[in-house]
């Protein structure tokens, strides 16, 4: 691979937007893994070449000015150096590398004190364009059944009329006097009272190219912009069983800048809209099963809910020999959860029992009250010996909505709705009051 074809970001396995810290970390990892001293003799020559690429990639990308030149002009800006890289010469000794990672300093203009580089305008680097990230909201029904949607898209592509040059055929670009062909300029930026810093920015005259076409020489189609707008109908397919956070990638459908060989991708991140009935965890679903008190005691046979695909889910619950449903009891229905991707299998449906008690006044007369008492257990017989204390007080009560008033004004962290002690006894309550 020639130097002009090398992608330094790929050499270090980092993204184009990587920070200095990420670049340094990636360099240390790659350098240690590929150091020639760590491979057999017959593999040393190949490892040496790879290690030189890693070393010089770090030298360029860790320096803001060099990195900007590389992003603007590619490796052609450094072809005066050894092996197509700036600074030539051997890489560091393994001991020196470890010393750098664990407290040692770095000399020179790069990680190994290698030589510097000048400003060399050249052809733009060609690579893949930037990806475009978007969130795409979907309902649980759409994730259950799958969804395909079509939409119109407009993106920038390289002008085919001028092949991305921005100029007419045989026209020559004028060297930019503002940046002297470098594609970048330096400016001072205040960072505090009496303090300034120097930073490198893209040249506004030539848009970072180092040259430009005068109006009469510009391409008639793109007007010198090097790119044109392209309209297209795209299709987005969400497979059944997809989950929140998953990415749907439309390859090559993002914008293409003049420096990009291929366009970037449009990446849709799925966002699941909250459902009023179902809760999802992986391939399983959970819902509330509302039953009347009579159904909890005697059973039922009916449709209890409508599933995500519109089917009614029917349960036949038989309560033999007095067996009853209890609040918060869980009923598991196998195979009625979410579908697994690329499979006919499904997760399970978990139903949490919620018992709906009758409204006040549903017993119209004493005869009805007596009838219920006769049917329900626990209404007959005297209390067992020892269950009733010697002294008994009859007290009055009032109904409240919740425990908000419990311990109010006491500064006790257990006050209010935070108090939960279902298994406590009377003595525990007395201790809380002391």
From TrEMBL:
<dbReference type="Pfam" id="PF00684">
    <property type="entry name" value="DnaJ_CXXCXGXG"/>
</dbReference>
<feature type="zinc finger region" description="CR-type">
    <location>
        <begin position="146"/>
        <end position="231"/>
    </location>
</feature>
<keyword id="KW-0677">Repeat</keyword>
<dbReference type="InterPro" id="IPR001623">
    <property type="entry name" value="DnaJ_domain"/>
</dbReference>
<keyword id="KW-0479">Metal-binding</keyword>
<dbReference type="InterPro" id="IPR018253">
    <property type="entry name" value="DnaJ_domain_CS"/>
</dbReference>
<feature type="domain" description="CR-type">
    <location>
        <begin position="146"/>
        <end position="231"/>
    </location>
</feature>
<dbReference type="GO" id="GO:0051082">
    <property type="term" value="F:unfolded protein binding"/>
</dbReference>
<dbReference type="InterPro" id="IPR001305">
    <property type="entry name" value="HSP_DnaJ_Cys-rich_dom"/>
</dbReference>
<dbReference type="GO" id="GO:0030544">
    <property type="term" value="F:Hsp70 protein binding"/>
</dbReference>
<dbReference type="InterPro" id="IPR036410">
    <property type="entry name" value="HSP_DnaJ_Cys-rich_dom_sf"/>
</dbReference>
<protein>
    <submittedName>
        <fullName>DnaJ protein</fullName>
    </submittedName>
</protein>
<dbReference type="GO" id="GO:0009408">
    <property type="term" value="P:response to heat"/>
</dbReference>
<dbReference type="GO" id="GO:0005524">
    <property type="term" value="F:ATP binding"/>
</dbReference>
<feature type="region of interest" description="Disordered">
    <location>
        <begin position="402"/>
        <end position="434"/>
    </location>
</feature>
<dbReference type="InterPro" id="IPR044713">
    <property type="entry name" value="DNJA1/2-like"/>
</dbReference>
<keyword id="KW-0862">Zinc</keyword>
<dbReference type="InterPro" id="IPR002939">
    <property type="entry name" value="DnaJ_C"/>
</dbReference>
<dbReference type="InterPro" id="IPR008971">
    <property type="entry name" value="HSP40/DnaJ_pept-bd"/>
</dbReference>
<dbReference type="Pfam" id="PF01556">
    <property type="entry name" value="DnaJ_C"/>
</dbReference>
<dbReference type="InterPro" id="IPR012724">
    <property type="entry name" value="DnaJ"/>
</dbReference>
<keyword id="KW-0143">Chaperone</keyword>
<dbReference type="GO" id="GO:0006457">
    <property type="term" value="P:protein folding"/>
</dbReference>
<keyword id="KW-0863">Zinc-finger</keyword>
<dbReference type="GO" id="GO:0008270">
    <property type="term" value="F:zinc ion binding"/>
</dbReference>
<feature type="domain" description="J">
    <location>
        <begin position="7"/>
        <end position="74"/>
    </location>
</feature>
<dbReference type="InterPro" id="IPR036869">
    <property type="entry name" value="J_dom_sf"/>
</dbReference>
<dbReference type="Pfam" id="PF00226">
    <property type="entry name" value="DnaJ"/>
</dbReference>
